[in-house]
Backbone:
């Protein structure tokens, strides 16, 4: 499937089903109790692991989300193995990604305020691609611009004011 091809809702639901089966197997192996909730959000299949036991669930998140990130990568590979196509599946554990998005939004808004106050660009700490995308989206929504710099794993975002020429271009497009 070409990168520009959009997957149907049935294909996205199939990916979520495959992912749920895979994650249920992993939970059984690890002897963790958990419910799996599936869905599609922003044209991406999503799978959420929800558990009653806070102790076990914390192990599935890990320090700074490292375990949930690894679970996502492994689950995407399992889906790709079954479908033959790359998946943009999102795996979340107990709402971790929602809380992470909100923290990143707050960081981006603080940087935006600093840029507006001083007029100077603000560099943020290194982030992974998911984190950078969240920041770029917030910055764009707020009418500023941002750019990623550096090499992984030290890639970071800089937030800038839009130049007068960019503002004029935006007005011309409207």
Residues:
């Amino acid at each position: 499937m070409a990168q520009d091809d959009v997957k149907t809702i049935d294909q996205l639901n199939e990916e979520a089903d495959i992912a749920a089966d895979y994650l249920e197997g992993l939970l059984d192996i690890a002897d963790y109790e958990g419910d799996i909730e599936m869905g599609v959000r922003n044209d991406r299949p999503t799978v959420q692991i929800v558990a009653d036991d806070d102790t076990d669930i914390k192990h599935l998140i890990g320090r700074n989300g490292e375990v949930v990130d690894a679970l996502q990568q492994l689950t995407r590979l399992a889906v790709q193995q079954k479908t033959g196509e790359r998946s943009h599946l999102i795996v979340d554990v107990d709402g971790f990604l929602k809380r992470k998005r909100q923290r990143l939004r707050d960081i981006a808004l603080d940087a935006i305020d600093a840029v507006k106050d001083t007029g100077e660009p603000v560099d943020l700490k290194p982030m992974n691609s998911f984190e950078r995308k969240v920041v770029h989206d917030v910055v764009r929504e707020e009418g500023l611009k941002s750019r990623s710099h550096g090499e992984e794993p030290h890639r970071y975002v800089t937030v800038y004011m839009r130049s007068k020429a960019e503002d004029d271009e935006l007005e011309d497009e409207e």
